[in-house]
Give the backbone structure.
Amino acid sequence: MNKTEMSSFETSVDVIPRKEYLGQEVYLGVYAGIVGAVLIFTMSRAVAFFSYCLRISNNLHNDMFGAVARTSLKFFSDNPAGTTWNSTPPCFISSYRRSY
């Protein structure tokens, strides 16, 4: 088959010339290095996000607990638990109930 009779799947052009080919081990090493770097970056980003969320939730919990602790006891004696519970929007109540 000469060059004029080639099918659309065949080619006569080398993608990498033979003299510039570094070897399969080099290319696999570079590929493995890139994959390893991506994995390390992804894991470090996930750990950083987790620690950030943990710190934020801890601060939020401490702020809410401090606000409740600073509240006078008169608020709790004047407002029964049911009244306080019913004044909360339903989306918060359903998410609170599902978490336990």
Notes: The helical segments are 24-70, 73-78, 81-86, 90-98. Residues 24-70 form the longest helix (47 residues).
